Amino acid sequence: MDLLSFGANGWGDEMARATLMTLTVSVCAFALALVIGTICAAGKLSRYKPLRIFLDIYTTLARGIPELLIIYLLFFGGSSAVMFLARLFGYHGYVEVNAFTSGVIAIALINGAYQTEVFRGAVLAIPKGQIEAALSIGMNDWLLFRRVLVPQVLRLALPGLGNCWLSALKETALVSVTGLVEIMRQAYVASGSSQKPFVFYSVAACLFLLLTSVSGFGFRRAEQWVGRGVRSA
Fold first, then answer.
1. Is residue 79 part of a domain?
2. Which residues constitute the domain of residue 171?
3. Rounded mean pLDDT of 174-180?
4. Measured distance CA(123)–CA(113) in Å, rounded
5. N or C: which end of the chain has fewer CB within 10 A?
6. 160: exposed, middle or buried (C-beta count within 10 Å: 0-12, 13-18, 19+)?
């Protein structure tokens, strides 16, 4: 237990900071993915065929390419891409995309592709009769969106969003390859220093299990809340 104590002789404080970093990356990536998923779902449901084709390509690539490869591409190519764009606006200095930024963007792009399909499926699952009924009583587009679409989409999409959050949480382990000190990276450093890999990887497993268990409980409660008043099948 001395290995996991807090202070100069143990790794407890380092593992705690790594857990906080994992949560920070997950929350930032999931929030960005929510924006990406919402916008892309609206685009895939639009009437513009070129936009739908472009978004189909994005979701296919993001879901088909291994997550680790996307992280590598953004980590090693992100700075070059940003500097290329900066030169178009007259800036010729060096711009570095750090491990945190590239990790958040990579997970957000991956997660956003899945959230796109979650939102699209939720919208398509709303009975057309409800939309027609809302239009027949004179609801404008904003009122229809606020009172019919948003509550229904939230209720239908929440289980899928819960899975997307758990995926984002676990995908942070892959960001360790960029040197970002999150749970897996800290476990690797501690196990190498102490020569106790089983101990620290077991601690990492327990920390991820704790985070996913608490998250699962929270999403189940949220599903119960948004589904209140809905008759069970």
1. yes
2. 22-180
3. 88
4. 16
5. C
6. middle
